[in-house]
Amino acid sequence: MKLSRKEIIEITGLLAVVGSLLFVGVQLALERNIALGDQYHNRAESRMANLRANLESDVYLEYRVRVWESGDRPSFWTSEFENLVGDSPPMDSVLNLEQDNISLAYVDNLYFQYRRGLLDETYWSGARDYIKRLISGPIRRANFISSSFNPDFSDLLTELVSEIETE
User: Is the pTM here over 0.90, yes or no?
Assistant: First the structure.
C-alpha cells in the first residue's frame, strides 16, 4: 500500500500533535513537582521563622522555663534524659529543644526535596550525613523521631538510627 503525499503530511501532523501533547504533559508534571517542593519549602521556612521568633522572645522563653520547672516535659522525655541533663539550668534544655525543632524542620524539608527529585545525589549524600550527625545524641534523636510529621522522614530516621547503632 502506497501512501499519498497528503496522507504522509496528515500522519506527520498527527504525530506532531501527539508529540507536543506528550511534551506538555511532561512539562506540567515537572512544574507540579517543583510547585509542591516550593510549597513544602515555604511551610518549613515559615515554621523555622516562628521557632526563631520564639527563641528571640524573652516572654516565650520565660514561659517555657516555668513550664519546664513545673515538671512538664515533652512526650518522648524519659528518666534517662532527666539524668543526662542533670542539674543544668532549665533554660539550656528549653533552648536545646527549640533549636532541635528548627533543625528538624530544615532536614525534613531537605528530605522532602530529595524525594521529589529536586536535590541531586551528591548534595543529598552530604545532607544525609549531616542528619546522621544530628541524631547521634539520644535526646535529639528521640525528639526528631517523635516530632516528625512526615512518615517517609520518620522511616529515614529509623534507618539512620539503625546505621548509627551498628557502627
Answer: no
